[in-house]
Design goal:
alpha/beta; 509 residues; 42% helix; 7 strands; single chain
Length: 509
């Protein structure tokens, strides 16, 4: 920032211009700092949703976004009688749960009034949900030896395979530990304490060794998952920080977990959705370039510069994310109550309203509707951004939000010309939510190897959930079979190819 010295000026106008320039810079800096403070307050104290309830006639979210009028609260008639008690909308208990029937016969065997015989009239049935605590059990594998009385030959069944050679854990226990750590966000030391309450002493080092060996055992399956994800014609990509312990330094450094999502269900595609995670010790662009070296198609991601080298050959086309654009104007609207930001949010909300109407339709239909309805709105929005950008200071926070949209405009509007592309990158952001929750519990990973193990298990757990499977049941089935499964048929163990005995969860949206 320039500072004008208080010397007697030879040109008063030059000093006035310099002072005005310095004042404008300070104002821009103050606006920027106010925006940062507002964002930090909302992150720490406020709700995490980016809904903006104060916008008239709009309910904007980042996932199920539709433009809906806000209905006024109904007013009761002046002389109306008090309404009866509303029935509960509680859903019925799931049918797949086992039922235990307890019959409560009346205390009388004959009529209490006349002593006559009683006959069945019907029954009242109510249900109560109960929990039976999980328990450990020991499976004893007995292999009898049989000897021939004539030639002394001995026969015996082969020893059953184990997920961990000569290890004591069964596939169900290993799946429980993995899902507890990577799906339910329970650090291993907490799991160790839980098991100790059941009278089983499994220290954290033992559990960590099991996790490492499972990751190694599952590596071929994760590699098959990677090949499946990158064989798609469109992939969503994003990354998130992962603190990693720096050996010998007594502090952490920041690694990264990268996510690559294949999910074309919003475009009517029947191919199973899947997610593949990769770990890197830093956020250099060489990592996504290495991850995606075999990919050919559309990459939907944020504006991270590390992806730029991927677009140079033309084999990978860039698709932008309107959620990132919206977030910048949302922060401005929250921090400054800006009419400019409010109008930008209304315009973006209209684009999302169109998407809500065509979700699940085939790409050709989505492209037709976008060309007819979204294209004119996008062209008008671009003209509006250009005009408003010329009215604000280039160093202001408003200019920053406007310029972000204009700088990435070609990538942002590509979705209007291709029905396979989504309006935003929320598929990848949803895949990272669980990692953000786990990060609060784990604080850091113990090493780069720990980050790679996390990426492998997150891939399998995330893909199972995308396909509506119970991840623990899926991993248990995989760990039971994979040790003896032919490596050239590893795709048979992917979630959509493997029958899982436990009931499936409701399909993810």
């Amino acid at each position: 920032m320039t500072t004008v010295s208080p010397q007697s000026p030879s040109d008063p106008q030059a000093v006035i211009d310099a002072l005005q320039s310095e004042l404008a810079e300070r104002r821009a800096e103050i606006e920027h700092l106010k925006l940062l403070v507002a964002k930090l307050k909302r992150l720490h104290f406020g709700r995490r949703s980016e809904r903006f309830p104060d916008l008239d006639q709009l309910q904007l979210g980042l996932e199920a976004l539709a433009v809906l009028p806000l209905k006024p609260a109904p007013t009761a008639p002046a002389a109306s009688a008090p309404a009866g008690r509303r029935k509960s909308a509680r859903p019925p208990l799931p049918d797949h749960l086992p039922r235990e029937t307890v019959t409560h016969p009346p205390g009388q065997s004959c009529c209490p009034d006349c002593g006559g015989a009683l006959k069945p009239l019907g029954e009242d049935v109510s249900e109560m949900l109960e929990y039976v605590p999980a328990y450990f059990k020991v499976i004893r594998h007995v292999r009898p030896k049989l000897a021939c009385g004539k030639c002394d030959a001995i026969v015996q069944a082969a020893a059953p395979s184990r997920p961990i050679p000569r290890g004591i854990p069964g596939p169900g226990l290993l799946a429980h530990v993995l899902v507890g750590k990577y799906c339910d966000h329970l650090p291993l030391y907490r799991q160790s304490g839980i098991y100790l309450r059941a009278g089983v002493n499994l220290d954290r080092a033992t559990l960590a060794d099991w996790v490492g060996q499972c990751s190694q055992l599952l590596h071929p399956l994760v590699d098959a998952l990677r090949r499946y994800v990158l064989s798609a014609k469109k992939v969503h990509a994003d990354d998130t920080p992962m603190p990693v312990l720096a050996p010998g330094e007594g502090k952490t450094r920041t690694g990264r977990l990268w996510t690559y999502v294949r999910d074309d269900r919003p475009a009517g595609d029947k191919a199973p959705p899947a997610v593949w995670f990769a770990y890197s010790p830093n956020r250099k662009g060489e990592h996504p370039q290495e991850h995606l070296k075999s990919f050919n198609g559309i990459l939907q991601a944020d504006a991270y510069a590390g992806y730029d080298a991927l677009y140079e050959t033309g084999e990978i086309q860039e698709a932008g994310c309107w959620a990132h654009v919206r977030r910048k104007f949302f922060d401005l609207a929250q921090a400054h109550d800006s009419p400019l930001a409010r109008e930008a949010l209304e315009r973006i909300g209209a684009l999302y309203g169109i998407e809500a109407e065509i979700r699940g339709k085939p790409p050709s239909e989505r492209r037709r509707v976008r060309q007819e309805q979204a294209r004119p709105l996008l062209d008008d929005f671009h003209a509006w951004l250009t005009a408003e950008g010329g009215k604000v200071s280039r160093k202001s926070v408003w200019a920053e939000a406007i310029q972000y949209a204009l700088n990435h405009w070609s990538a942002l509007v590509r979705y209007a010309d291709d029905g396979r592309i989504e309006i935003d990158n929320n598929a990848a952001e949803r895949a990272l939510r669980g990692i953000a929750l786990g990060r609060k519990n784990f604080l850091f990973s113990g090493s780069d190897a720990g980050g790679e193990r996390a990426a492998a298990i997150y891939s399998l757990v995330g893909t199972a959930k995308l396909n509506g499977l119970d991840p623990e049941a899926y991993l248990s089935t995989v760990l039971e079979r994979i040790a003896e499964h032919p490596i050239n048929q590893i795709e048979a163990l992917l979630p959509w190819n493997l029958p899982v005995e436990r009931p499936a969860l409701p399909e993810a949206a």
